[in-house]
Amino acid sequence: MKPLKKMFAKAKVIVSKAKAPAVAVSTLAVTSIASAAKAEPAKVVDTSAIVDALTGLTTPIAAVGGAYLTVLVAMTGWKLLRGMF
Question: Using CA atoms, how far apart are residues 73 and 80, in angstroms rounded to an integer?
């Protein structure tokens, strides 16, 4: 049991040492994105056409997913019924 405790103690030290650089990197990324957005607001990409196209595809995607789930339920039900007799 003692080697296991030592291993967990080492893991805790590694995790605690990794937190500070991770926070620094994520903070740097957020500040660089924010400053880039402030510096060049004219380069914003217009995504309305893509969003409209994806919104139009929700119904066919839902229909295919519903059909797939119906087939799975039917197959499982058939197997259950076949197993009963």
Answer: 11
Instruction: List the domain boundaries for the chain.
Output: 1-43, 45-85
Q: Tell me the two tokens of residue 57.
A: 């595809």
Sign of the dihedral defined by the CA atoms of residues 31, 32, 38, 39, in that order: positive
Written as one letter, the residue type at 57 is: L
d(CA 85, CA 74): 17
- For 42, the enclosing helix (H) or strand (E) is none
- For the chain of 85 residues, list the mean pLDDT of each consecutive stretch of 10: 60 56 60 60 78 89 95 96 87
* CB-CB neighbours of 39 under 10 Å: 8
Instruction: Name the DSSP class of 26.
Output: H
